[in-house]
Amino acid sequence: MGDNSKGNGKGGNGPAGLGCLSSLLSLLLIAFVLCFLFVFFGLGTEKGRHIVQDWLEKQFSMELTIESARIGGAAEIVVENIASMDTGGNGVPDFKIKELRIGFKIDGTLSIAAHKAMLNLMEGKDGGWTPSVFGHLGTLPGKHMGDLSKLTEGFRRRVRIHISDSSIAWITGNGAISTSVSGLFFDMKPLSLPEKDIYFYRLNAYNVLGSDNINIHNIEREWLASDAVDYVAVDKLKRQSVVVANGFWEIK
Asked: N or C: more exposed end of the chain, with fewer CB within 10 A?
């Protein structure tokens, strides 16, 4: 996969990586309004496409190419065929999205929807992961599914996320794939309840290559989280209060 020490800045492992993603979502929330107003009448032009591309490069802290950008609704920007300039040495982008939709819901939350996203997370020599903005995901396969709640707590009050038909691969320093997931669907959204901030999560995955090269299929998880509790299952499965490190994806 090429030189895994390369990337855009330092690897985002641990709190620094979480800060990168929180900053990214905050910037998207603020910059979206300005960008939307600025390019509303120019998205169909080459200049408008370059404006959106430059804006996304700043948010993701990496060089990107995009095929097109357009207005998809009353308050929504649709960007198609986003791809990073960096590759793993085989010509495949480290990060790409077939379609990205960014807009506002009636309740004032920012909605981010990514369809057919692909992310190759590379482990660096210093133990961090690149692309750095997603670096905090590097150690996720060795944790509990409730850690997804912790990773999003910095922005989930004002952001909805929908990811569909996507994939992630975790690539070690020697170029081997340690874990991968395909057919990934993920939803996160705040719920309106009186005097309580509650968040809904859903994660589905068609196929996961987990520890010891074991394939796991058709994973489905739904849970609630709050500022006090990271994981309360609301699916048909029993609650997973404790999961061994290699059991993140397993169905218990």
From this structure: C
Question: Smallest Cα–Cα separation from 237: which of 225, 215, 210, 219?
Answer: 219
Beta strands in the chain (DSSP E): 64-65, 68-73, 76-84, 95-104, 110-123, 129-130, 159-171, 177-193, 196-209, 215-225, 232-233
Q: What DSSP letter does each residue of 43-106 carry, written as one string? A: TTSHHHHHHHHHHHHHHHTS-EE-SEEEEEETTEEEEEEEEES-BSSSS-BSEEEEEEEEEE-T
Average pLDDT over all residues of the chain:
79
pLDDT (0 to 100) of residue 196 = 84
If one compares 154 and 82, the residue with the highest pLDDT of the two is 82
Coil, helix or strand for 11? coil
pTM: 0.79
- How many CB atoms are located within 10 Å of the residue 39 CB? 22
**Could you tell me if 44 and 71 are in contact, meaning their C-beta atoms sit under 8 angstroms apart?**
no
- The percent of residues in the chain predicted with pLDDT above 70, rounded, is 73
Kindly tell me if the per-residue pLDDT of 83 is higher than 90. Answer: yes
What SS3 class is residue 160? strand
CA–CA distance, 15 with 152 (Å, rounded to integer): 12
DSSP class of 241: S
Residue 34 phi/psi, 5-degree rounding, is: -65, -45
Give the integer Cα–Cα distance in Å for 80 and 70: 9
Q: Give the DSSP letter of residue 205.
A: E
